[in-house]
Specification:
This protein is an alpha/beta fold. The chain contains 18 helices and eleven strands. The protein has three domains: 127 residues, HypD, alpha/beta domain 1 (Rossmann fold), CATH 3.40.50; 153 residues, Rossmann fold (3-Layer(aba) Sandwich), CATH 3.40.50; 57 residues, no CATH class. A five-stranded parallel sheet has the order 2-1-7-8-9. A four-stranded parallel sheet has the order 4-3-5-6, sandwiched between helices.
Amino acid sequence: MKYIDEYRDPATVKALVAELQRVVTRPWTIMEICGGQTHAIVRFGIDELLPDEITLVHGPGCPVCVTPIEIIDRALAIASREDVIFTTFGDMMRVPGTDKDLLMVKANGGDVRMVYSPLDAIKLARENPDKQVVFFAVGFETTAPTTAMLAQQARVLGLKNVSLLTAHVLVPPAIEALLSSPENLVQGFLAAGHVCTVTGFADYERFAVAYGIPIVVTGFEPVDILSGILETVRQLEAGQARVDNRYGRVVQREGNTRAWSVVAEVFEPCDRQWRGLGSIPMSGLAFREQWAEFDAEQRFDVGDIQSQEDPRCQSGLVLQGRLKPTDCPLFGVECTPEHPLGATMVSSEGACAAYWKYRPAAAVRSETVRDG
């Protein structure tokens, strides 16, 4: 508790806010990259503490939310097979595909299981040699090492009934896509601390130079985030643009080189479709040719499935930072955690889920509109 108290200390928070009020002289727009940061900002009301000149916008920092509907539908097709035990993290169970989700598949008899580690699939595969065990791998660079380890361990054990449906995405190409957009209004970024724990932050330095934009690595507690915002504003006010690490207790410039070497052995960068952002070059991870035997898309031949987004859902604008969840007319009306139109309402890192959970007044207002 002492550790947590240090980074939630009210006096420190108050001092950081006061310093922000002293430093800022003009409007600035800052985007936090990570969905975990979004939840912390909304939970602790950090955005409501800031001077009026500072606007926070939520970025595409929820890997579940940016997983394209095409991959969700492939997951549903594989999970519906009688010969498959389909495993995934809990966040994926309620993410809507074209016409159903994994919980519906489970309710209809599919063997869909929530796991806590990719390596749980190894145990299931050894216990069920007559079944194909598939792990649905979703996440940024943070979770990619354990996914790669699953493939490595399956090969060491000679397991032929293990495969992975991968939807890993990479943060730097997404940042570049946002910065290069003619509609970009973001002037500074808060980089995701847990991603940088694995990758480091050296790759971000080229963006600071090329686009003249500060990027500050932060953690997930109020003091972490406010310190990051303060450093970003200081740079903006001074006309500076560099990468700064405000999460030094965890993040190093070079990252975790051992973890990333495991990823590099199994995967290679590929073009990836992002929900709400479209196709981003070299923003995903695909199996290298020598590891293709573990690719569930190839094993089950689901590459040509046709998908359709719900046209009512505006999560794409939320993921681009162009729309606050509560500004969506369907928030709490036609879109709720019980009946979500998009992943941002059901993922534990989704922006819409954060507002639903931590801004109850907005939810109540929307429910009143629906009931009225």
